[in-house]
Amino acid sequence: MMTVGLTGNVASGKTTVADRWRESGVTVIDADKLGHAVLEEDAEVREALVREFGGGIRGADGRIDRAALGEAAFSAPGRIATLNAIVHPPLLERLDRELERARTAGARLAIVDAALVFEFGLGEVLDAIVLVTAPARIREERLRDARGMDAERFARIMETQMPDEEKVEACDYVIVNDGSIDRLRAEADAVLAAIRDSMDEYSEGEEDDG
User: What is the pTM of this model?
Assistant: First the structure.
């Protein structure tokens, strides 16, 4: 099975590409959903987060309030790294299980949809990586229009994410999302076609290794 990472910083259009590929019948594993599951189902993680960030991150129902957790994590330098150190290991365990499930089901291609592909240390593990990128000005406008996010919050998020300029050279495919949604979908289709074309060569390499 070929594994491909799909990454992109906030408001890049990565989710639109992931949805397009999912509609095409490709197995897409959403790392963000796995992260949600960790918060919902892993009591040890929840307890560790409350110890680090305080009881204020719990909602009225006792669950982790992701918005409150985000505010706490962005409150001071180094707090995002603390959050990641708690959540990433169990998330990656779940990712491994999902990939194995896809492999057992006979999938020839699995996409790992994760904004933090490189931060997770997956750059050397996946067979190829696709970056969805857009100019920072456009991404800030999208977040302001969609979520009412102000410039200060956008800047804080940007500080925690690896710059696109550093990701480009480490990626096999780059989709620049600075136009219409139809153009983005067309670019997604073209990249998926290129990945599928490369799968024959990848399969031959696996056979040779075997």
Answer: 0.90
